[in-house]
Every structure is written in C-alpha cells, then in structure tokens.
UniProtKB/TrEMBL annotation:
Protein name: Tripartite tricarboxylate transporter substrate binding protein
Domain of life: Bacteria
InterPro entries noted in UniProt: BUG, Bug_dom1
Species annotation: Parasutterella secunda
Signal peptide: 1-20
Keyword entries, A-Z: Signal
Length: 314
C-alpha cells in the first residue's frame, strides 16, 4: 500500500504538460484527393497499419477539389491538438502555397514524416502509335494540339508535362481532371493523347499479359531498375533532373511539442517495421521514410523549387 501511495503521489506531482501525450480518441486524417486516387490508396494503407500500433481509428477524410486547395485549407485551419493530421503532396502543396492570394502557407504545417517518394513517367495507351518518346515529341512539335491529361491545374503531373514540353520545345493542350485516377482513366478511354504520372500510379497498368498503358520516358537521372528498357528524359535530350512527388504526413502548425513528438515517433516506428514495408511492396509501393527534420528540409527545398522553377513553367 505504501508503494502504491508513493507511486500515485509521484504521478500527481508531475505536471500534466510533462506527461507523455497519447491519443484518447479517434484521429482524423485529411486527404485532399478523392477516394481511390494514388494519394488516397497510400494513405489508407498506412493508416490501417498505424491503427494497429496506436489502438485508435485513423479516419480518412477525403476533401477533394481545386487541385488540393480545399483539403489543405481545411488542414491548416484545423485545431492543432493532435487529433487532425493530414497528407500533403510535394511539390503540389508548395506550388499552390506560392500562388498569389494562396489560401495557405508553408509555415502553416508542422512536418511529421515522409511516407513515399515516387518518380514521374510519361505514358501513352498500350495501343498508341507512338512507340517511343522521341516519336511522341516529334508529333507534338509538328502539331500543338496533342492533349495531355493532368491531375489538376499546376498539380504535380501538370508540372511534369510542362517540364517535358518546355525542355522538348513543343506546345500541347493540358486537360485537368480531379486526380490521378481520373486523368489515367481519361487516357485509357482515348480522351487524351498522353499523360505524365508517377510510377506507382501506372505500375499495374503497364505490366501483365494485357497492359493498357506503355511508359515512354522517366523523369530521373538514371533508368528505373524495374523498367531498364525505358529511357530517361535526359538521355533523349529533354529535362535531365529527377522529378516526381513526395507524399508526407503533417500536422497543423502550432501543435504542442509532446503531441508532435508522439506522431513523429509513431510513424518512425510504423514506417520502419519490416511487416509494414512488405505490405507496401505487395501494394506496389516503396516506403521512403524521412523524419520530421528531414521532411522539413525537403519542404524547404520544394518551396524553393516552386518559386524558382515551377513558377516559370506556367
């Protein structure tokens, strides 16, 4: 009894602010794209696995629209208490944050962890007449009416198309859709001529006995290990740097230090779990974990990229 009384006295003597924070109720996770999109698929997989770690439900709130602005505006304005976190896509988030009269700023989020980093690719239908990126570019240079589906105005895949077009010296018609899933469906249905997307979004569509899409080029400085026959854009004389998208977990700025520490440690543990990595690989995803400090540096670099590179593409 004396030991119990002493333990209680010690616990009561510790200030509430010094006690480790853990969620006592379910957590909302804001995803700024529709259910079934590439971002949503990755987020749902991760949050399902995270639920097992924390013992609370991670409830996905899909708030699509305006190329991500609706969801991310809600995210930065949410109460910074640890019960609302969200997903951002880079560089789309920083691109939109740098627009005139932007609804949110980079400083309104607190980095937690990077989840995925995916390389961009150029794709056409599997039955397309263009067998190579050189052929597609040659056609585009002669005919500025080729149509390219994107995942939204100034969204990540639109930026990829701009990088290709400007480095290859051609014009095209960008056709925005509600997200990557929709833009790829438009390509599959023949509504557009080509698309730029991320490798994880197209992997299942370019493989198997009856592929529906074909990869023509990769936005990287070296060929992808899984697709050694697909050239990089740089090899062909076009954009010669890596370009793709990072998908990361953040909280509203102002979240208490102990709450932020909890989420950083939780996602570090989950994303480094071999079983979690295996589950992602089965889903065609490869984890690229970065902690809060590394993610913070990535966000800063993408903010610079948005101002110095992307701003000149539109």
């Amino acid at each position: 009894m004396k030991k119990l009384a002493l333990a209680l006295a010690v616990a009561m003597a510790i200030p509430l602010s010094a006690q480790a924070w853990t969620p006592e109720k379910d957590v909302n996770v804001i995803v700024a794209y529709k259910a079934g999109s590439g971002t949503d698929t990755g987020a749902r997989l991760l949050m399902t696995l995270t639920e097992k770690e924390i013992g609370k439900a991670m409830i996905i709130n899909n708030l699509p629209g305006a190329d991500g602005k609706i969801g991310w505006t809600r995210l930065v304005k949410s109460k910074a208490d640890g019960y609302t976190i969200g997903y951002i896509n880079l560089p789309t988030f920083t691109t939109l944050a740098n627009e005139k009269n932007a609804a949110f700023k980079v400083t309104q989020i607190a980095p937690i962890a990077n989840h995925l980093t995916e390389t961009g690719v150029v794709v056409v239908r599997a039955d397309s007449k263009w067998q190579s990126l050189k052929e597609l570019v040659a056609e585009a240079q002669k005919n500025d009416k080729l149509r390219c589906s994107t995942n939204g105005v100034k969204a990540s895949n639109h930026t990829a198309a701009q990088l290709l077009a400007q480095s290859a010296n051609f014009k095209y018609k960008a056709v925005p859709y509600g997200g990557t899933a929709d833009q790829l469906m438009a390509l599959r249905q023949g509504e557009v001529d080509f698309s730029c997307a991320k490798i994880a979004d197209v992997a299942k569509l370019v493989e198997g006995d009856k592929p529906v899409l074909r990869i023509l080029g990769v936005f990287d400085t070296k060929r992808l290990e899984a697709y050694p026959n697909v050239p990089t854009l740089g090899e062909l004389g076009y954009y010669d740097q890596w370009y793709g998208s990072a998908r990361a977990i953040v909280a509203p700025a102002g979240v208490p230090a102990d709450v932020l520490e909890y989420w950083v440690n939780t996602f570090k543990k989950v994303l480094n779990d071999p079983a979690v990595k295996e589950a992602h690989e089965k889903g065609g995803l490869t984890i690229d974990f970065k902690d809060d400090k590394q993610l913070g540096e990535l966000i800063k670099s993408q903010d610079v990229f948005a101002r110095e590179v992307i701003s000149k593409l539109y």
